[in-house]
Amino acid sequence: MTASGCLDRASCPVPDPGDVDLRRLRLVRIPVGLVFHTAYRRAHWPALFNSSGAGNARFSRLSLPGSTVPTLYGAATQTVALLESAFHGVHERAMRAISEPLELATRGLVALSVPHPLSLIDLRDDALERLGLRRDQLVATTPEHYQCTREWAVALHGRRIGGVAPAGLLWQSRIAELAQADSLLFADLLEVASTVFVLFGDRMATDPGSWHAGAPHYDDLTAGDGRLLAEQIAEQLGAVIVPI
């Protein structure tokens, strides 16, 4: 498959969803009260879901005919949440510099509790094997193919599995996988904690009052404990935080 916006059409690894037996899809049940972490845009706080239609991520923006589905990205740990946001460019742009005003000052990090049970489509490694897919065909592509993987998000959003409309997608982070190669400490920390997910805002309440924000909550990644966490991650990646 090569979506119209694919930036590497000649070597696109992403298959057409219509060529894959999606009847093999399974759901993962996320229980009430599960704590996860999300990096949010401070300018939009306390809004958690991105309903702007802006962005260029693996499974969002999620555009349906006549509408854009609000989305929220979550991670099992603080570290993975920041690897997937503020530190994403360390690997995607092959740069070892993080802009403090662009990447840290604009973001906060908060722990949230799942307010009601969620059923997410399982795209972890074992589930991909069941579909006959490799990681690099869907959840570990480079950004050049995000337009193609977003076509998958549209297709999976429209599926019903056992009569259930999925609340989102769950997979194992490519960025965390790359980070493990940078650091022996990360290899230990991320081996079983690399789970990330995206939630579909048309399948649940998106108002901030429906989500319990708890500790830790770093609304400033340029000072205090938030800055300390950012510096620890940068050190493990061999990256520097620069004031530009």
What does this structure look like?
It is a single chain. The chain is an alpha+beta fold. It has a single domain, classed as Diphtheria Toxin, domain 1, CATH 3.90.175. It is 27% helix and 24% strand. It is built from eight helices and twelve strands. Strands 1-8-9-10-5 form a five-stranded mixed sheet. Strands 2-7-11 form a three-stranded antiparallel sheet. The chain has a two-stranded antiparallel ribbon with strand order 3-4. α6 (174-182) packs antiparallel against α7 (184-190). The longest helix has 14 residues, at 224-237. The radius of gyration is 17 Å and the shape is globular.
Q: Descriptors for this entry?
A:
three-stranded antiparallel β-sheet, five-stranded mixed β-sheet, 12 strands, single chain, alpha+beta, Diphtheria Toxin, domain 1, globular, 8 helices, 244 residues
Structural class by SSE content: alpha+beta
Gross morphology is globular
Mean pLDDT, to the nearest integer, reads 91
Return residue spans where pLDDT drops below 50 for at least 5 consecutive residues.
none
CATH uppermost class? Alpha Beta
**Number of helical regions:** 8
Total domain count: 1
**N-end to C-end Cα span:** 39 Å
Strand content: 15-25%
Question: What is the share of helical residues?
Answer: 25-40%
CATH fold description: Diphtheria Toxin, domain 1
Largest sheet: 5 strands, mixed
Record field, number of beta strands: 12
Main sheet: strand order: 1-8-9-10-5
> SSE order, as H and E?
EEEEEHHEHEEHHEHHEEHE
Specify Rg, calculated over alpha carbons. Answer: 17 Å
The name of the CATH architecture is Alpha-Beta Complex
